[in-house]
Amino acid sequence: MDIVRTVQREYGAVSSEAMDTIARSVGCKRVEVESCATFYAFLSTEKKGEVVVRLCNDIVDQMSGLAEVQQAFEQALGISAGQTSADGAFSLELVPCIGLCDQAPAALINDVPVTNLDADKARKLVAELKGGADPQALIKRLGDGNNASDLVHSMVENNIRRTGPLVFAPVEPGKAIANALALTPQEVIRDAKASRLRGRGGAGFPTGMKWDFTRNAAGPVKTVICNADEGEPGTFKDRVILTERADLVFEGMTVAGYAIGATQGILYLRGEYAYLEEFLNHVLAKRREAGLLGRSIKAHEGFDFDIRIQMGAGAYVCGEETALISSAEGLRGDPKNRPPFPAQKGYLGTPTTVNNVETFCAIARVIEEGAGWFNQIGTEGSPGSKLLSISGDCSRPGVYEVEFGLTVNQMLQMVGASDTQAVLMGGPSGQIIDPTKFDRRIEYDDLATGGAIVIFDTSRNMLAVAEYYMEFFCEESCGYCTPCRAGNELLRRKLQEILAGRGQSEDVDYLTRLGTTIKESSRCGLGQTSPNPVLTTIENFPAIYQTALKPQTSGLLNSFDLSAATGPAAAIAGHKSVHVE
Ligand code: SF4
Q1: Could you tell me the CA-to-CA distances from 181 to 176, 254, 424 in Å, in that order?
Q2: CB of 482 closer than 6 A to ligand 1?
Q3: What is the pLDDT confidence band of residue 108, given thresholds at 50, 70 and 90?
Q4: CA separation (Å) from 192 to 82, 150, 470?
Q5: What is the pLDDT of residue 335?
């Protein structure tokens, strides 16, 4: 991965010759290099422009004026989205969520994020780039917190709107490690279990139990991986944690290393956050200097543990833990069959614990302050706090640390939302709920969420929203299994027919049966959740389907266009078909 990423950056493509050279140099098969180079959005076998403008086309960007921004970029660059200019200077691409929904429309220019765009800003950026400016020189105003540091130097804003007792509380580097080292690894796992901490990535698996499985798995080498590949449209909280609480993340990973008996840790960082890589490496270097990483950590003989950063290259499916492991191994980000589970056989065959960025912060705080303290926060069934990334139709988008148990209504009030028609809870793989559910609580026993929340007011067409999310899943499916590869495409086409006014009453049943089949027969979490935008809008917004669908009257499916179907034959025969109703 590192080699192909470097080749892409230096030469603008991973060419056929480069693949041969890489395969020879690292002693693998050429097809392995090719499968990698053709899998990831940020890699290409065809030469890209010197400057690549990746314009985020997430639904929130669309709601915030993407169309005008895209048009301005296209006119100024003289190319359409998906093209490279004839002189090889520029490429313009539309990409799914880049983790900046709270400051949309946004784009990455090479690795440099530019935010809060409008048509005028887009034209000015292009003028500067055409005048020879380096993308980094486009940054005229720095964001808050560590975004303004020399090592990040970014215009991105943290937009931390509410702090809480866990993640955004003051951090004392090394305290959780010191507390852990005063215990045996088994006692650390005991405390993790007693805290009842569940994974913050969305699946909610008990962290202590996962660590126990990994510790007890056979193998001389064990691995801790931090999943920093948040790609769920609407999520951006991990970006803020990595910017402001990197020490806490690494502290949690180190505690995990001690508990499970690991020597190696990997932070898998999504390609969209490459602008944070240098800063994160600096934090790691400082921790090594302070004796918090490396050999004999905190002078504890025999506890050797270090962390490296593995960059991703633009693939949503790599947020799935086995796909992430494949990617960290330098392969396509293909999900793996389970069993064996990563705790038994994960990264390069080693027993591996994969936890989310926020989970590592929470566990560090548990070991710092104790499981009893942690259990007093939140609700009986969901102890602790949760970071929410909130965007869409509200006046205060950003990151909120809230205790579990907050109702959706309270959340909407907190973020300044009004006239709300729908809330996407947990990104498109979660659920889209209607106002009758707004008194439900954000917690594992009620509305579980990985943290991506998008708000839609009554001006939005929820069918079009569902169709957009299906387009996203079609794009991001790895293609391995048919239900996900073909089924999501069929769902999307049916929604397009309905949006075009060619749906009929039976289509709801078709969508429900197909969506359920995809969920039940797909291999990994992506396919098992991808029909949710369709299924949850059918469940919670039946009226929008009833309004859009018409009864079948002519004996032909409403979606069947007789003229289009007979047109080619009529052209060959040289005469017109006459249709008699
Ligand atoms: Fe790939 Fe989709 Fe199958 Fe997962 S469910 S393995 S993403 S095709």
Answers
A1: 9, 11, 42
A2: no
A3: very high
A4: 48, 36, 37
A5: 93
* Rounded CA separation 108/49 (Å): 14
Give the pairing of strands 385-392 and 398-403.
antiparallel
Written as six digits, the tokens of 314 are 């633009």
Q: What spacing in Å lies between the alpha carbon of 341 and ligand 1's midpoint?
A: 17
249's CB contacts (< 8 A; 6+ apart) are 226, 228, 241, 242, 267, 357, 360, 361, 364
Residue nearest to atom 1 of ligand 1 (CA): 478
Residue 246 structure tokens: 């990197």
* pLDDT score for 581: 65
In this structure, which residue's CA is closest to atom 5 in ligand 1? Answer: 527
Residue with the bigger pLDDT between 580 and 31: it is: 31
Taking every pair of Cα atoms in the chain, the longest distance, rounded to a whole number of angstroms, is 89
Rounded distance from Cα 336 to ligand 1 centre (Å): 10
> Which residues share a beta bridge with 389?
399, 452
Task: Average the pLDDT over 91-103 and give the result.
Answer: 96
Cβ of residue 548 lying under 6 Å from some atom of ligand 1: no
Q: Which helix (H) or strand (E) holds 54?
A: strand 51-56
CA–CA gap between residue 117 and residue 107 (Å, rounded): 8
The answer, yes or no, to whether any atom of ligand 1 lies below 6 A from the CB of 480, is yes
Q: What distance in angstroms lies between residue 527's CA and the mean position of ligand 1's atoms?
A: 5
CA atoms within 13 A on the CB side of 49: 24
First to last CA, the chain: 60
Residue 474 vs residues 108, 251, 484, 520: alpha-carbon distances, Å: 23, 37, 8, 17
Kindly state if the Cβ of 479 falls inside 6 Å of ligand 1. Answer: yes
Return all residues near 315 (Cβ < 8 A) that are at least 6 apart. 39, 40, 41, 231, 323, 327, 333, 476
Ligand 1 centre from 524 Cα, in Å?
5
Residue 196 has pLDDT above 80, yes or no: yes
315 CB less than 6 Å from ligand 1? no
How many whole angstroms from 320 Cα to the centroid of ligand 1? 10
317 lines ligand 1 (CB under 6 A): yes
pLDDT tens for each residue of 218-267:
999 999 999 999 989 999 999 999 999 999 999 999 999 999 999 999 99
Residues ≥6 apart with Cβ < 8 Å to 18: 7, 11
Share of the chain above pLDDT 70, in %: 100
Probe target for ligand 1 pocket from 35, 229, 316, 317, with the most ligand atoms within 8 Å of CB: 317
**Residue carrying the six token digits 């003028």:** 127
Give the ligand 1 atom nearest the CA of 477: 7
Burial class (CB in 10 A: 0-12, 13-18, 19+), 108: buried
Rounded CA gap, 229 and 232, in Å?
9
Contact 188, 255 (CB under 8 A): yes
Whether residue 252 contacts residue 364, with contact meaning beta carbons closer than 8 Å, is answered with yes
